[in-house]
Amino acid sequence: MTIGVLAVQGAFIEHEQMLVKLGIPCIEIGKKEDLSGIDGIILPGGESTVQGQLLEKLDMKEPLRAMIKNGLPVLATCAGLILLAENIGEKEAPHLGTMPVTVRRNAYGRQLSSFMTTADVKGIEDYPMVFIRAPYITDVKNTDDTNMADTDSVTILSEVDGHIVAAQYQNQIGLAFHPEMTDDTRIHQYFIELVQSCH
Ligand code: GLN
């Protein structure tokens, strides 16, 4: 198994260190050719506008979108979640737009830019969450509240103060916080299990 970590901008090294800790081989994705042969991809935090522009400039946006639509597992954190979102509000066009959620950028305001809290993420108790100029999810297209196995629905994985901060749609996991910034590897482990289940 090889996990690609998008390495055009942002906090990609920290994700690589988490994968090393878990003994999972990973490669940095800096150009289109790097995309071939990966079993999953991590989209790190950073600045989504810059990342989106770079994906376009490097001719990676369409191939990556196609791979995700075809089921490539994705762990997207913060700016990465914004890249995946189908809707970023009225003023901005979506980037990859593969996840049927609406996000609000810098949702906690620019002044309260960083904070830490602890909350449960479906199946994982007391997960330490680092938020840095974070978005949150304001709307999901369908939820699976009915508990029916609907492959076209979004599962809410975590809420903090009434806001959705983690969700999953098919093989796409989107997080508003940074799981690579603490020692807790449980979210990366959950992602690796998802990748394994797709093999
Ligand atoms: N505020 C950034 C954006 O909108 C995301 C911040 C982050 O990834 N930590 O792109």
Notes on the structure:
- The chain is of the alpha/beta class.
- It has a single domain (3-197), classed as Rossmann fold (3-Layer(aba) Sandwich), CATH 3.40.50.
- Helix content is 24%, strand content 33%.
- The protein is built from five helices and twelve strands.
- The protein has helices spanning 12-21, 48-57, 61-69, 79-84, 186-197; strands at 3-6, 26-29, 40-43, 74-77, 85-87, 99-104, 114-121, 124-132, 136-140, 154-160, 163-169, 172-175.
- The radius of gyration is 15 Å and the shape is globular.
- Glutamine binds next to helix 4.
- Belongs to the glutaminase PdxT/SNO family.
Descriptive tags:
single chain, 199 residues, alpha/beta, Rossmann fold, 7-stranded mixed sheet, 3-stranded mixed sheet, 5 helices, globular, binds glutamine, EC 3.5.1.2, PdxT/SNO_CS, pyridoxal 5'-phosphate synthase (glutamine hydrolysing) activity
Summarize the structure.
The chain is 24% helix and 33% strand. With 199 residues, the chain is an alpha/beta fold.
- CATH fold annotation: Rossmann fold
The hetero molecules present are: glutamine
Helical content (DSSP H or I, runs of 4+): 10-25%
Named CATH architecture: 3-Layer(aba) Sandwich
Number of domains: 1
Distance between the termini: 9 Å
Query: Which CATH C-level class is it?
Result: Alpha Beta
Shape: globular
Overall residue-averaged pLDDT value: 94
Strand content: 25-35%
Rounded to an integer in angstroms, the radius of gyration calculated over CA atoms is 15 Å
Count of helical segments? 5
